[in-house]
Design a protein that fits this description.
mainly beta, 7-stranded mixed β-sheet, 0% helix
Length: 123
């Protein structure tokens, strides 16, 4: 079965950095667009960033542009999210997701989801 397992979350001070990783199994990884989403307490899940099948193209939310970078390694079946200059507003559970057909910021177009990893930014 398909599994997406996130790691790398934790507590960090504002202005600091974290790197999230997502390990995928049970799917042909290179055939999936991979994305990161996040959900803060009391808020809806929102798009953070996505990367195309080959890794040649990325999209990201305006709120993280210039601070977060998504990357993938198809040989290792993994996708990372490098988060720099973190803010308190970045506090959320971060989810890795895979989409077979859509290169999109729409969470409804993602087929598989991880369990999430908590990121807490203290101000």
């Amino acid at each position: 079965q398909v599994q997406l397992v996130e790691s790398g979350g934790g507590l960090v001070q504002a202005g600091g950095s974290l790197r999230l990783s997502c390990a995928a199994s049970g799917l042909t990884f290179s055939r999936y667009v991979m994305g990161w989403f996040r959900q803060a307490p009391g808020k809806e899940r929102e798009f953070v960033a996505a990367i195309s099948w080959s890794g040649g193209s990325t999209i990201s939310a305006d709120s993280v542009k210039g601070r977060f970078t998504i990357s993938r390694d198809n040989a290792k079946n993994s996708v990372d999210l490098q988060m720099n200059r973190l803010k308190a507003d970045d506090t959320a559970v971060y989810y890795c997701a895979g989409s077979r057909h859509a290169y999109s910021d729409n969470l409804r177009q993602y087929d598989y989801w991880g369990q999430g990893t908590q990121v807490t930014v203290s101000s």
